Amino acid sequence: MILLRHAFKSLSQQRFRSLLSILGIVFGVAALVAMLAVGEGAKRQTLKEINRLGVQNTLLRSESGALSIRTLEAVSSALGDAALYSGALKIESTDVPHLMGVSPSYGVLFHLSLYKGRWLSPLDEVSRAQVVVIGKDLAQTLGPKGALGRSLTLGSEKFVIIGVLDEETEGALIHQDLRQAAFIPLSAAGGLKPYGQEAGALTEIVVQAKNEGDAAAVAEVARAVLKRTAPKSDAAVVVAEELRRQRSKTQLTFNIVLASVAAVTLLVGGIGIVNVMLASVVERTREIGVRRAVGATQKLIARQFLLEALVLGSAGAIGGVAVGLLLAFSIRFATHVPLFVTWWSVALAVLLALGVSALAGLYPAVRAAKLNPVEALRVN
Questions:
Q1: CA pseudo-torsion sign 20, 21, 26, 32
Q2: In the chain, at which residue ranges do the beta strands (DSSP E only) sit?
Q3: Which residue in 94, 1, 110 sits closest to 51, CA to CA?
Q4: pTM over cut 0.90
């Protein structure tokens, strides 16, 4: 306790120099906390989207509409009862941000939950019913009276709103933002004026293996059918498990880069502490000599300077965590990038700061301890 009080007293006598050395640690810890929060948030959001795609699902996607009902029928014929199927057509609309024609099974395969009303039914598909299920944000723009039963104009046609998606239903792998989306029966999409597409065109085909263990085999069959039926198309095959592995590798690389940047910043902070402590040793040479003369051991002197370095590191770590959290939430507020602060990321940043501070204080502490007491007393 006496050593700690003495450490605070010594550092307070050189406030400006101590503050400068702390800043390096603050910046390093802040960078690490903020970067890990953003990285962890991005990882969790990605996994959420991949899980929404479904580990048993294979998604065939073509932005140009190169897929077709014929492709869907070929996949269905090749796999038979081993999988479930759904087709979708993305429609470039000026009436709503995101408009899609989908088959009834689309909502089941992607686990789309409803806030109110119902999803599209097989009868809607067969009868080409002009009905629509919309996202919650889109429903709120229609006014306070509620959206169910009201009409939504798409192109030159009026569609009756039969369902509103839950606000938690969103995912970039399915759509950019389902809160702003509208879904109509696939059979009603082809004749939608002026947004009608080529008859039978599709932008997405979803194939869900009935057994999770068959997902890889189902994906291979889907690839083979796509290669045979549309060899020159721009269609891509997205498999949840493959995507998960790819994203995990990318995330690992991203985290290594972020950690390297933060480590360099912490290293700079550590060098600052070394300089401050060495200057302190020089300035306090006579004090060290007096303390040695009255019985202080080399270990006690070394412990004193090491404790001062740890005090600097602790102050920098606390300030860095606060600045890092502020920076992370500022990034989220400005860019809407998801973030997630974990206890282990904060603990890691603090431990690294203390470790760097201890290493930085080691050399000055040893140098102070090895000063010759007689020569130290001669210094004015």
A1: positive
A2: 57-61, 67-68, 83-91, 98-102, 114-117, 131-134, 151-154, 157-165, 181-185, 201-202, 204-209, 236-239
A3: 110
A4: no
